[in-house]
Design a protein that fits this description.
about 15% helix, C8orf32 fold, hydrolase, protease, alpha+beta, peptidase activity, Immunoglobulin-like, 17 strands, Papain-like_cys_pep_sf, Transglutaminase-like
Length: about 280
């Protein structure tokens, strides 16, 4: 399986700014080639790579006022080997977070989907077996309660407000999925990805649920085959994985072009367990 990823960002920097980009494939991704270039009106810019949790790769640029062009290209061949999971990770991703208020949705999740937990078993070391079937059921539940409507939400909307509105985009579907999984005592996290097959093309967001010793992809939008996805960043919710963070300055995004191609687009069975490697 070969995937080709590109991201081209055209920014206008109004004041000297500290910019953090999260657009590169995560560490451990099997790359045949990769290129990241940042140019200002005065020429090439220095880029510093920062490796964060879950192998997220951030790139920092101190940008001066003027035009800033960011170009990223990568060719991914095959699948990465999932890294080992530690206990702190599963504990962290059980807790409520800014956009995934699992505590507020606890009663709803239990009344709507609690029956799915009957065959789960808690072991002495805190691990849980069984329950893999919960993931597609939660995805289906979210899909029934939300309509995908571009531009229907803002950056301040959370799982609770999205559910009340009944509509959202990929980040909102992921937030509600994560909140419902955590309310069912299933560790869940947010992944920003490149998504071959997505129409219209953009950065995409999915949830991952930790069941039977592995993180499995849950995408209630069903807009792209999960087997084709390439991880960019991982976190508690969208606050941890923004593709651009801006500090100290004022920046305008004037144009953004994302593309992700794959040699053969796979078919995706919604009930099949898929690991995002």
């Amino acid at each position: 399986m070969q995937r080709t990823l590109t991201a081209s960002l055209d920014l206008r920097v109004h004041d000297r700014a500290d910019l953090i980009f999260s657009i590169a494939a995560a560490g451990g991704t099997p790359l045949a080639s990769e290129r990241l270039q940042v140019h200002s009106s005065d020429g090439p810019c220095a880029v510093t790579e920062i490796v964060g949790p879950d192998d997220t790769r951030l790139h920092r640029v101190i940008a001066e006022p003027g035009r800033l062009q960011v170009d990223y290209e990568a060719v991914v061949v095959g699948q990465a080997v999932p890294r080992p999971v530690d206990t702190l990770e599963t504990v962290t991703y059980l807790r409520p977070s800014r956009y995934c208020e699992s505590d507020a949705l606890f009663s709803l999740a239990r009344s709507e989907l609690g029956y799915l937990l009957e065959h789960r078993r808690l072991h002495e070391d805190g691990t849980v077996s069984g329950g893999l079937q919960v993931l597609p059921w939660v995805a289906a539940w979210v899909g029934r309660h939300l309509s995908y409507v571009s531009g229907s939400t803002t950056v301040s909307d959370s799982a609770v407000s999205t559910l009340a509105a009944g509509r959202g985009v990929c980040r909102d579907f992921a937030h509600l999925t994560i909140a419902m999984l955590r309310a069912l005592d299933i560790p869940a996290r947010y992944a920003a990805v490149y998504a071959p097959g997505l129409v219209p093309m953009d950065f995409h967001a999915v949830a991952e649920g930790f069941v039977d010793g592995a993180w499995h992809v849950v995408d209630a939008t069903g807009l792209a085959p999960r087997q084709s996805l390439v991880r960019i960043a991982t976190g508690r919710d969208a606050a941890d994985v923004a593709w651009l963070s801006n500090h100290h300055g004022n920046v305008t995004v004037e144009d953004m072009r994302i593309d992700a191609l794959i040699d053969v687009l796979p078919a995706d069975d919604p009930v099949q367990a898929v690991v995002l490697a």
